Amino acid sequence: MSKGRTSYDVIVVGGGIAGLGVAAIVSAETGRKVLVLERFPMTGGRMMSYEGLPEEGWRIDTGLHFVELGEKSCCTALNTRVGKEVAWAPFSESVDIWNGEAFVNIAELVPMTKEDRNAFAGILAGISKMIDGDIELWDNRSFEEWMTEHIPQPAVRELFTDLGMIMTTIPNAIDMAAGEVLYIARENLRKTRQVLQASYPVDGMEGITRGLVEAILENGGEIRTNCEVQEVLIENGRAAGVRVPSKNHPYQEEFRITETESLLADRVVCALPIYSLSRIIDFDPRTSPLPRWWLKRITDIRNEITGLVGFMIGLAEPVVDPGKRCFLTALKTKHAGLPFQAFPASNFSDRVAPPGKQLLHTDIVCEHAEASDKFKRERILNLLWEDLKEMFPGIEKKLEWKLPYYVDGCDGLARQPGLVGNFKPALKAPGIPNLYFAGDTWLGRGLAINSAARSAMTCADLILDDLRREFGDVIP
Ligand SMILES: Cc1cc2nc3c(=O)[nH]c(=O)nc-3n(C[C@H](O)[C@H](O)[C@H](O)COP(=O)(O)OP(=O)(O)OC[C@H]3O[C@@H](n4cnc5c(N)ncnc54)[C@H](O)[C@@H]3O)c2cc1C
Predict the structure, then answer these.
(1) Given a cut of 90, is residue 280 above it in pLDDT?
(2) Which of 170, 196, 222 is the last residue of a domain?
(3) pTM: predicted TM-score of the whole model, two decimal places
(4) What is the pLDDT of residue 475?
(5) Ligand 1 pocket test: which of 49, 65, 413 has the largest number of ligand atoms within 8 Å of its C-beta?
(6) Which of 138, 170, 220, 442 could form a disulfide with 178 if both were Cys (CB 3.0 to 4.6 A apart)?
(7) How many domains does the chain contain in total?
(8) Is there a single domain that holds both residue 273 and residue 295?
(9) Domain span at residue 163?
(10) Is ligand 1 within 6 A of the CB of residue 66?
(11) Per-residue pLDDT reduced to its tens digit, 103-119
(12) 316 and 298 in one domain?
């Protein structure tokens, strides 16, 4: 190691739930010297939340978020593993769907006969008994195909399509990976006896990541924000550390080349989405330290993502019954013509809005190309506002503020056949034994937050196994 260069046991690139999770477990369970590097001023990544924004008394997340399974979720398990708790608001009571005139309970939207209802119950019972191997067989096949084989009743198929849309944010069953829908449904049925319910931490998304940050710091780990990693150093077939900006000279922006210094580590974890990876690892097959087949696989799938465009809305008075803990959705809105979701977070937690006021999270699910184009995005936002005025009469008059937002890759990789379960990229780099990955675009299952939390636990276990192999059962 070069003289004067700091060294760590593990450097984690990215302070989202996955990076914080890996760092928290490794520091809590081994006491090793761990450093998390995050490019933004705050940790949390796509789960960042802000207190006092846009005004005193409000707490908002970066867009609409709900977590499946709440206290029985992987993100609770991740916190528990490092001795921390997440305070959850009670589960949602209903999923209501827009029928063009009103939000109605999902069961009312699809008229079902007694036979249909019996068939629905039978199918749920069957899903709850599926074993992992049964589900994996469907990871590369469409949910439409699964329904054709298993559900003769059109009404029941329609109901399952609606549920699948909420789980995958993909509107058509033909594009949904059957394995993922079946897995999410099975876990929810086994743990909550419902196909899907929404949970929300009383402190917003920060309520999930705060304990991980505390665990890292309490166990001697370090977190450095405002530090955008420029490159993962790979020397002689091993990860050696990372390069980070060394100084900000006045013309850095214009010159476009950042001056860097090295931070050395025995192990490096890239806890950032696969679509950001080529910013820190060379992807040119002629010079990259990673094999050509792997680079091609990552390049082929890295843009298989969906986008979200929406408004976070603060209301002087509620537009959704404040006593109702619901998740609202539409398969296709009238104006934007796209799938829609809304979540009145203040109906779940009284800590996110001032008394008597309502915080409404809303979004429209669209293709990455539409969300990332400024002009298309603007048009979708205008159409969404027209939809919101019809769905929530009086919203204009009650409006205190509304913040538009957009995000690419909201849910990690699109949950399409061949992009879920074991088809997702593995957590260890091929040929580089001390380079790991974690996050919702890497191996893991469940809705995105839980998938990221699960991948953090699996990645940490791989690191612990490697340490044991190197140092024996007692990790020094
Ligand atoms: C608007 C929105 C709505 C969502 N809704 C839901 C929902 O309802 N339910 C659900 O389950 N999931 C939802 N998700 C997805 C969920 O937020 C993500 O699955 C989860 O946060 C992913 O965590 P992660 O740690 O894998 O990645 P990230 O949170 O993206 O973390 C990666 C981190 O790496 C940092 N980083 C990147 N490059 C560098 C670099 N070069 N150097 C240093 N740091 C770097 C980033 O700043 C980021 O903090 C939503 C996401 C968004 C944005």
Answers:
(1) yes
(2) 196
(3) 0.94
(4) 58
(5) 65
(6) 138
(7) 3
(8) yes
(9) 113-196
(10) yes
(11) 998 777 777 889 988 99
(12) no
